[in-house]
Amino acid sequence: MIQATGSRLRNLLKYNVLQKLPEMKTTFDKATRDGLINRINALNENSTAQWGKMNVYQMVKHCTLWEEMALGKTKYKRAFIGRLFGKMALRTVIKDEKPLTRNTPTVPEFIVRENGNVESQKSKWIALLEEHEDFPDFDFVHPFFGKMTKEQIGYMAYKHADHHLRQFNA
Description:
170 residues, Four Helix Bundle (Hemerythrin (Met), subunit A), globular
């Protein structure tokens, strides 16, 4: 049993040493990844958004771009506002299992305006998700949230994919 009083207790609680952390879904878990892949496979060119401006191709391409970034294949410049508020926002987003809110702003480079082949783009997204099995260990810096740990990337990758799959009722 850990015994602590005063400021030591506050520090332990602050860093969740004494609190049980919720079991968060992560793309590093095979069953979770497989669930996302099944939901991606349920999408088709006739899938329509429940909210937002993207069509299904644009959403799948957007998620592909996000995964390429998370895997270190592409890098984006940090947003100034992210330098100010990114860490605080990240803690809020990944503190629990709540889905991301609708119409959340995105990195400008992730806005997709063109249209294309949904099935081809789905295959690319799935292949990128499968790369989470052997995720590389590298210093990842999100354009808004900033430096993220591997654990945070796994949580955020799940929440991001889940958000957009919910958007299209998948």
